[in-house]
Amino acid sequence: MNTKSASRIYLVLIIVVAGLLRIAFPGLSEFKADEARLYASSLHFANTLQAPVYGITSSIGIPNFPISTWIYAIPLTIWKHPYSATIFTGLLNTVAIIFSWYITKRYWNTRTALIATLLFATSPWAVIFSRKIWAQNTLPIFVGAWALTGLIACRERHKWPTLLHGLLIGCIPQIHFSGLALIPISLINLILCRKSIAWKWFAIGAIISLSIASPLAIYLNSSGWDSISGMLTNPIIPNNTDSIKYYWMLSTGSDIHSLTGPSKYLYFLASVPNYNTIYWFWTTLIVIGCFSLVKSNNNLPPVVPRMMLSWLLIPLFLQYISPYDTHLHYFIITFPVQYIIAAVGANQLFNIITTRIIRTGVWTLLLGSASLQVWYVIALLQFVLLHNTPHGFGTPLSMTMHAINKVEQIYTDNKVSELLIIGEGNDPGVHEFPAIYDALLNQIPHRFVDWRHTNVIPNLPSIALYRQDENQQVLYNYYQDLSHNKSYFKLRQGEGSIVIADLPTSNELIIDYYQFDTPNTLENGVTILGYSPVTINDGLGWVLHWTPRATSSAINYHFFNHLYNSAGTKIGQSDAASYPSYQWKDGDRVISFFSTSTDTHPKFLKVGMYIYPDMQNIYFVDNSGQPVSTNISSIWHSN
């Protein structure tokens, strides 16, 4: 077998391994709030062909560009399933490895290209970031194309690579704001090679990218620029030393055990060997590669080492001086330059070392470190599949999908009216639990209930989905007692179960309560039926029983509860938001929870409702619709 054929076989093997690491078992990916919102937005675009003008909110508090939503809509037009978008992410990242091969092969040699491809393919963080739906996880393929077209544009006056480079330099920051770091890299290298640049075609590409960005600009212009101005007024932090640590972690695969969370990482580390030798071996290769590029020979075009070094260092420098918090994923835009430079370093070692046994030792270290990195990633994925990892890797998507499939089956077979998604939070735009299930159950009519504050029982047959944790801390929860025909879907050890159950209708509901004086109907259609005292650990607790009237408004209603002693002195108060008005339906029975820290026994309870934050009282009305009072009362009954 000749050298060329062998190289092709090695390359194919590396890409196959890379693809398996990135694409296999798509259910073994986390699906949290950001993933859910991006998936939901992309799916809506794929279903309706209504292109969004802005993306999900970024970590710095401003809307992202919609380009990521457009990208993820591509696989969802073919298969409307979260696995589709997950596999698509892995596929893009696998193709990105080919760019690292081509760039290195084009400007160095086959050996260097194979080493760069091997290191990138087995990089632990590169694998992890390619296994879930996330805007920045699509970056490597576009960054690889940016680097290749930039190198070609700086040396050869070809119009299409130059146009594409101009397009990418404007589009990559729209995928994720960390891509802004690539702009000075391009400009520095293009200006230094200005006589070789087809500037007209670069400008055309840049203008196209600006037109792609225009929907967000139009949206911000119409809705206000408060989020941008607020971001720009943040205090400046002199330096951000975490950026150095994160960059090293990303490049070497260090600290990947952090995905197991603060409570489990010691258990995981006890099951794997110490990898510090591998991390410092890869670091040494990068350092040697940098020195090699600085002292590059005349056979290498000057733009190549300059492009590689600026690509490696400028993102780090910009994050170091950034006034904002740095996160690990901000350095995804550097993939795969650190591995190309490490491969250059390894190639330099092979050029220097003539002793066969030492050269074999270096190859052993390269292949061994790459193999151990693969083993480490697999061990980590197995660990997070079996163990609950709070504040680390989220619940594997496959476990959530078992419950989703059951809900779809029940809804189809039993002809229920709707699904109640019950958990912490009731706003998919703010809270994680509703965001996840809003995205995955978009085809089924559903509402959200934050069971920390409210229970809702619809008037028509319905089913409930809630998570039953092993150490759940919910003060008042009627669902576990009222629901029936329960199906349990076990999650990871210590994580509890997802429960799917039938709910009684509000007409079938039998819960005793003390009635309020009449009239007890408010001008917005809410009828406050009564209250029930409940036992809590500290202070007084009670629940209000009420029924709403369906409305299309999103007015923020709040209840006030005032406790009085026999002398008429107020001794306690509890105000809280009602169940969101845009989710009200006729016939609902709503149970809202309240508490106060007072230990004094009250004599009366007065209740009313107002609009927040306007503090506008809602009046109780008589049978003719005339306002009567802003509150109703009842004698307090001890539990």
Name some characteristics of this structure:
639 residues; alpha+beta; five-stranded mixed sheet; five-stranded antiparallel sheet; 20 helices; 47% helix; elongated
Write down the overall geometry: elongated
Structural class: alpha+beta
C-alpha Rg, in Å? 30 Å
Helix content: 40-55%
Tally of DSSP β-strands = 18
Could you name the ranges where pLDDT drops below 50 across 5 or more consecutive residues? none
Strand order of the biggest β-sheet: 2-1-4-6-5
How would you sum up this structure, described in words?
A hairpin with a 5-residue loop joins strand 9 (527-534) and strand 10. The protein has helices at residues 3-23, 33-48, 67-76, 82-107, 110-122, 124-128, 139-155, 159-175, 182-192, 199-223, 226-232, 242-252, 265-269, 276-294, 303-320, 337-352, 356-386, 397-414, 432-440, 479-482, and strands at residues 418-423, 446-450, 454-457, 462-468, 484-490, 497-503, 514-515, 521-522, 527-534, 540-547, 557-564, 570-577, 589-596, 604-611, 616-618, 620-621, 627-629, 632-635. The strands form 4 sheets. It has a 5-stranded mixed beta sheet with strand order 2-1-4-6-5. The chain has a 5-stranded antiparallel beta sheet with strand order 3-13-10-9-7, with no helix packed on it. Strands 11, 12, 14, 15 and 18 form a 5-stranded antiparallel beta sheet that branches. The longest helix is centred in the middle third of the chain and has 31 residues, at 356-386. Helix 9 (182-192) packs antiparallel against helix 15. The protein has 639 residues and is of the alpha+beta class.
